[in-house]
Design brief:
The structure is a homodimer. Chain A is α/β, with parallel strands linked by helices and about 300 residues long. Chain A is about 50% helix and about 10% strand. Chain A has a 7-stranded mixed sheet with strand order 1-7-6-5-2-3-4. In chain A, helix 5 (about 70-95) packs parallel to helix 9 (about 160-175).
């Protein structure tokens, strides 16, 4: 997915959300808005939006002199942990814990304070468990998983990682060796090693740092160590829109030699239009094949 | 009204509308979006948004090498002229033609292709004639008018000027000498002398050119001749949000020594929040006094 002209207003919307979280000083807020015009002007139209916003958020943090998402990340780690016991019970008691946990992992993707200013977690969980996904390759996901012992799990946001933890626990319970990937440097409300520790995910699987502050997974910006890990991975679970933007290809050429499944909600007009789905659509997409609406629905 | 941080995304939204009207060349569209970052960066936060967008639209025209609104202006002049006979009948047959024509003039303000990409003219006319205005100083408007023989009428958009023509005809019928003010240079879909001629307004009143391409009425950017005309005016009708942004003051200090009434729809979140009205609210505001919601409603 390439950056679209309609992403330009959104560059400022994202900046506004970040500066309002980061400071009450209106003059500084205005200065940051003006400051990011340099990064917007430098937008590479051949790259995904996540590429531009990576540089945008670097500038925002630099001008604010801090990470504006620290508090909201901790807050939503706590909120999601409060929901964990009930969600864990649902997974354990369900007929197909892998199905239930994968749906909850998609539901958790609603926690995104880079895009939203308010969210409805309970309603999203209900929607994930009781309505069809817009694209649903769950059967292929389950089948492909039987052929792999190792899972590389690309995390997305703080808070959301508690929902991912449910799926990771199911995977480790199936005997899979899971490595969960966090950002090396805070960016947006993306999960870092600190967030993984905050919710106890580091006790459930190995945490891998991608050595980068990129939004999504921009391989040329991540560390050589992470590039080696990613290259060797046979089975990848990719969470969220940033990872989808930067790794999905319907032709299978972006992630050669691996099975990759994308669990996400389509949160913006541009991506939704691109995929032909409604804004807010929940998706379980298989990499390397067209992202097509699926009529399949589980009773 | 000063530029607000939430205006920044809208600067790009307005640019997008203009470039899409002006060219099908996506590389040029992207270049213009990047080009206007210079003007956005130079935003004077102490001035109204119309100030920034004046420079923005100068850059857009310059980079496109043309006025992107030429066709849409002519199209809506034609569409509005098609509605004129029926609307004229409504005014003539109404109990209070000044009331009906002023309401229709507010309805006509829906024609704005700098902000909207589609509009519902019939629905807006119905709303203007059958529901209360959010701020309604009609009685003061009618009363103040009795004390003046001359009216300076600041026009807003092409197409809309056909609706203004109905009100101007009522005013001239009341014996008032009306001068209607157009932009000196095409900007956005604002009416120019060419538009006034296209709809026949030049046969109904004197047309005055403000010598400028400013959005709204920015006196320091308009010609010395227009400044003289404006300074001498005792009674002013100001149409649209741009003129409101640049001329309205609740303290009466922005237009000293004159009665000024603003007929407009509040088309953006920022202004609506500022005034405490709903987006899309219709307003007949008196300059020099607070813009307050009015419960007054005519049976």
């Amino acid at each position: 997915m390439k950056v679209h002209l309609d992403c330009f207003p959104c560059f400022f919307r994202q900046t506004l959300i970040a500066v309002r979280l980061g400071t009450k000083d209106e003059a500084l807020q205005a200065a940051v808005l003006k400051g990011v015009t340099e990064e917007i002007r430098a937008t590479d139209m051949s790259k995904p939006p996540a590429h531009s916003t990576t540089f945008l958020h670097r500038k925002i943090r630099s001008m604010l002199g801090k990470d504006p998402f620290t508090e909201v990340k901790s807050e939503y780690n706590r909120i999601a942990l409060g929901l964990y016991p009930e969600l864990k019970t649902r997974v354990v008691q369900s007929e197909d814990p892998l199905w239930t946990a994968s749906r909850l992992a998609i539901a958790g993707n609603i926690i995104d304070f880079g895009i939203f200013t308010s969210i409805d977690i309970a309603g999203t969980v209900k929607r994930a468990l009781h309505t069809p996904l817009s694209v649903d390759r769950y059967e292929a996901f389950r089948e492909a998983l039987t052929r792999h012992d190792e899972v590389l799990y690309l995390l997305d946001n703080a808070g959301e990682i508690v929902f991912d933890m449910l799926l990771i626990e199911v995977l480790t319970g199936m005997g899979k060796r899971v490595r969960a990937v966090v950002k090396g440097v805070p960016v947006l409300n993306d999960a870092t090693a600190g967030d993984a520790a905050e919710v106890g995910l580091d006790g459930k699987c190995m945490i891998v740092d991608n050595g980068s502050d990129c939004i999504g997974t921009i391989l040329e910006l991540t560390s050589p160590e992470f590039n080696r890990v990613f290259k060797r991975a046979g089975f990848v679970i990719s969470k969220g829109q940033g990872n989808f933007e930067t790794l999905f290809s319907p032709e299978g050429d972006s992630c050669p030699g691996k099975e990759i499944f994308f669990l996400l909600q389509s949160k913006c007009d541009v991506l939704s239009k691109d995929l032909g789905v409604a804004k807010g659509a929940m998706l379980l997409v298989r990499g390397g094949e067209p992202c097509r609406e699926s009529p399949a629905w589980r009773d």
